[in-house]
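User: Can you help me understand a structure? I only have the sequence.
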Amino acid sequence: ASADVAVIDARADKVVAKVQVGHTPHQVAVSGKLGKMVTSNTSDNTITIVDLKTLQTAATLTLGAMPEHIEISPHGGVLAVGNIGAGTVSLVSLKENRELRRVSGLHEPHNMTFSPNGKLLYVSNLGAEFVSVIDVAAGKIINEISIGAPKAMAAKGSQGEEYQGIINVTPTPDGRHGFAAYGEGDALAVLDLRTQKTLKTISVGDTPWRAYATADGKFMIVPNNGDKTVSIISTSSLKEVARLKGAADMTGVNTGASESTAMILSRSENKAIVIDLRTLTVAGEITLPGTPETGVTTLDGKKLYVALSSSNQVAVIDMEKRILVGAIGGVGEGPWGAHIAGAGNYCH
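Assistant: Let's start by predicting it. Here is the structure, written out as tokens:
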């Protein structure tokens, strides 16, 4: 709400800088290779490209209506931006700071995933039951992979209020497979991201949100908001190995502490459910001092930072002790997400 990005020193857990960007920044992506940070500014229909050395704006690009989710290619040169209100995806050169192509024919494009070689872009359609595949070089859709039986499409601009299609194609850490949950169909499809083939479809709980990968690649964790459960999927057997009690309005999962622990964020209940990944059981819960949005685990897996939109703070959780250790103030108004360069970032 304050049109800025707060920079936190993770050693001291203090805000050390503020970067002004466009209005209602939705997501942040960082290219360490190019030394640039990008924000998608939903209210302005723009993205802001920031030079990380100076923290000054290098470029502001006007794209389609309501740019929200963004993804950087494996080689760091191309940024994909989903213009959810326009049904388009913009492909942007981060080296040249310009839009290369704008691809139409999407249905409320949500999160996006590149193939391991960066040649293909898998686009989740929140307003449909299929994943669109874009040829990045050609800038056009070359395939639509059906995840379940088609149902009534969402009204234009509803952003999932009436219909929950595909939120995300979550890749395994090696980039080989992608897991796509179809909310309306209570199904999780396993895709080969090299061949565009569907390998298997797994039944999960009611209205699955999306899959979240553990850093070691062993599990996919799927919150099912329809029945307040959490499905744990083994990536080796491609089977559901546990279904645990969850909470209402689960929109985030983070793992850490040598991948022994998962934190399931519940927005409406202001808490994190603790799952022990060694025993696949619920190990407790942590009350949060505000509404959790998205979080990110430090690269060593020891700390979790969670943006709290209602209290204008960022919560700090010790992943080893599984306790809340503090909250960072002064981060701006309505913080929406926490992001670390090189970490497993996500946006709901």
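Now, to help you interpret it: Residues 154-160 have pLDDT under 50 and may be disordered. The CA atoms of residues 129 and 151 lie 8 Å apart. Let me know which part you'd like to focus on.
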